[in-house]
């Protein structure tokens, strides 16, 4: 796997274009969805959160039907990204009140669950609360992820400090996530050699791997080990005191943020040991249910989420920058995974992922509206996948290696498992 940051990327010279500006505040106006659907007019409106989101989606969908990408209605050419972003300006308004309410609510729930793990004394209840605590770590991380994108509140400094705070339960160093995610992943999504998140190998590269690494690759892509992939390949190698080979740029803030999460982990462990002594519980048991299990759940969730966001038999990877940039990658490399339950909302709408990649400035509490606008106006261009465990494991079975010349997923023997020329979908 190539380094996360090839030498041509200088993280100290980021473009201001990657951080969309905050739209000017305006009074609440009346908007006309038919104007949006019929003639492309951008109407300035402010949508509340969270009430009414489904209604807006249904209104827009009834005016311009959404088409799954695998149905391939490519009659409408994909506009420039600046145009796509202009469509989303009305739903890009940031709210400090909403952001703080979400952060305080999730922090309180996480704290309550951890207190329950320590104080319940019932192993079954402790295990259940530990699992929920792991889920809450994921929710807190998603809020911090938004803050790191400068889309959580209108205030840059507040976003930075909120991001660091919200990243602590997941032990995520803020500045290193900023580089690896905001600059590399968002800047070069599914471009081999740059975007390292679930980057597939070719058959030739796989056959050159030592036997132990081939076995590890098979485990990672079995569908059962997203937790192991994220823990080893992302957190350990690229986020927590990364080596110079992985992170050539050395900055003091990287070490400082890694030390910050180390201090948080030490305080967390120390608190559990003190609690074990005070309540007469086994220290090893309390560390297992109060520290290791929540973090294992967190790693499983984030590993799963980043996999399904960009891995699909209809989603292409690219070996060269020219073909990648010509494929409108901010739309074509991202899956919108839909759910029939509360799961999407429980993960703060991070599954409305096409809108997030088109414009990172849209706050998570408005992503559902933004996704609805894009799906209404870009029929045939967005991969929309209803989630099922059958689909997930079928995808894991098919998407093992990638043949870049054919634009095709293969298994570990090199046999094709998807249609050839999938990259034509994005043209």
Describe, in plain words, how this protein is organized in 3D.
- With 427 residues, the protein is mostly helical.
- It has 2 domains: 21-91 and 332-426, no CATH class; 96-306, no CATH class.
- It has 18 helices and 4 strands.
- The chain has helices at 33-39, 53-63, 81-88, 96-119, 123-148, 156-167, 174-187, 203-208, 211-220, 226-239, 252-279, 283-310, 321-325, 329-332, 343-346, 353-358, 367-377, 389-398, and strands at 335-338, 383-386, 401-403, 408-410.
- A two-stranded parallel ribbon has the order 1-2. A two-stranded antiparallel ribbon has the order 3-4.
- The protein is globular and about 65 Å long.
Question: In brief, what are we looking at here?
Answer:
The chain has 18 helices and 4 strands.
Q: What's the main sheet like?
A: 2 strands, parallel
Low-confidence stretches: 1-75, 423-427
**The number of domains:** 2
Mean pLDDT: 84
Strand order of the largest sheet: 1-2
General form:
globular
Structural class: mainly alpha
Quickly list its features.
4 strands; 2 domains; single chain; 427 residues; mainly alpha; disordered N terminus
What's the topology here?
Elements: H1 33-39, H2 53-63, H3 81-88, H4 96-119, H5 123-148, H6 156-167, H7 174-187, H8 203-208, H9 211-220, H10 226-239, H11 252-279, H12 283-310, H13 321-325, H14 329-332, E1 335-338, H15 343-346, H16 353-358, H17 367-377, E2 383-386, H18 389-398, E3 401-403, E4 408-410
Parallel strand pairs: 1-2
Antiparallel strand pairs: 3-4
Helix pairs in contact: 2-17, 4-5, 5-6, 5-12, 10-12, 11-12
